[in-house]
Design brief:
Methylamine Dehydrogenase, Chain H, about 50% strand, WD40 repeat domain-containing protein, WD repeat, Quinoprotein_ADH-like_sf, Kelch-typ_b-propeller
């Protein structure tokens, strides 16, 4: 049986998409990405194959810091009908912009950035920022912005709403370095603990809700999915995928992923079935039936290099995976039923 083929293949007009997020605005799905070019971000409408580039303002407060952006990783949210992005890289700390105007909403912070992902906690969306190689995650509110010099309002600044989680650490440069969402009624993030093992962390109460023991090989990418009616942690190591039960803190038997090392992960529910999607260094994308503990269909082949990111979503009422890779292409794959 032949491998599945992409239903849409496209590339940005400049550069290649190093990281991306998905937003829905005015009922249309948009891919918001970083083409790894200074002062530049872009959107892609997969329904029309329309790319739009956006110039970004200088995020540095001091002229001596330079006039550039470095977005290796990016998250996006819709705030009052406008797209807000946040991101950074090895040489630029986390910053936020209004995408269409390019106006800086949060100046570049100290240090570098390893990963950024938007997390939806019910009606509240936050940008979760990881720092590769060190502990701690930060959660920034995209609805807040730094005040202008002549702004004497009492609206909160981004620093007032900042949430820091020092107990977790990032070990991946993908957006799946941390999983985030609701566990029952609790807003949680899931990632490696700097003391070992994996923690499910309540961001409101600032405490651990579940702790998973260390595996023989520590995982580095995470997602959450409802399996058999209960929310589970989905974790990926170099060549394995494993389910964890937050109620017991126990891991199931790992699934071995063929091919090259896993580079990114996503999970969700499609037609009532819990599914995980893994991208790998050799360009292959595998789809997994989590309840059945088996591959779902043939792998998606077509990328000519490392897969930077995979996201499950719907396009024209069809469940799809959107992926970006080192070869410069962005691809849309229809998920098997």
């Amino acid at each position: 049986m032949s491998a599945s083929s992409a239903i849409i293949v496209s590339s940005p007009p400049t550069g290649r998409i190093r990281d991306f997020d998905l937003v829905v605005r005015d009922g249309r799905l948009l891919v918001v990405g970083t083409p790894d070019r200074s002062h530049l971000a872009c959107t892609w409408d997969p329904a029309t194959d329309l790319w739009t580039e956006h110039r970004l303002g200088n995020p540095w407060l001091e002229e001596t810091d330079g006039d550039y952006t470095e977005l290796y990783t990016l998250g996006a949210a819709v705030v009052d009908g406008r797209i807000v992005i946040g991101g950074g890289g090895d040489h630029q700390g986390f910053a936020m912009w209004d995408l269409e105007s390019g106006k800086v909403r949060l100046s570049a912070q100290d240090g570098g950035v390893g990963s950024v992902v938007r997390a939806d906690f019910g009606a509240r969306s936050l940008l979760v920022v990881g720092f590769n190689g060190t502990w701690a995650f930060e959660l920034w509110d995209p609805s807040a912005a730094e005040r202008d010099d002549d702004d004497d309002s009492d609206r909160p600044s981004p620093y007032d709403l900042l949430v820091e989680v020092e107990e977790l650490c990032s070990k991946s440069y993908a957006s799946s370095a941390v999983a985030a969402g609701m566990l029952g009624e609790r807003p949680v993030v899931v990632a490696d603990s700097w003391e070992g093992g994996v923690l499910v962390w309540d961001i409101d109460e600032q405490r651990s809700l579940a702790e998973f023991d260390e595996l023989d090989e520590e995982p580095h990418d995470f997602a959450m999915a409802a399996v058999d009616g209960r929310t589970h942690v989905v974790a990926a190591g170099r060549r394995y995928l494993v389910l964890g039960d937050p109620e017991t803190g126990e891991w199931a038997e790992p699934l071995i992923v063929p091919g090259d090392e896993i580079s990114c992960l996503d999970a969700g529910t499609v037609n009532g079935r819990a599914i995980a999607v893994t991208g790998a260094g050799d360009g292959a994308i595998h789809v997994w039936d989590l309840a059945g503990r088996q591959p779902l269909g043939e792998p998606f082949l077509g990328h000519g290099g490392e897969v930077y990111g995979v996201r499950m979503t719907e396009l024209d009422d069809r469940p799809v995976v959107i992926s970006a890779a080192h070869d410069g292409s962005v691809r849309v794959w229809e998920l098997p039923s």
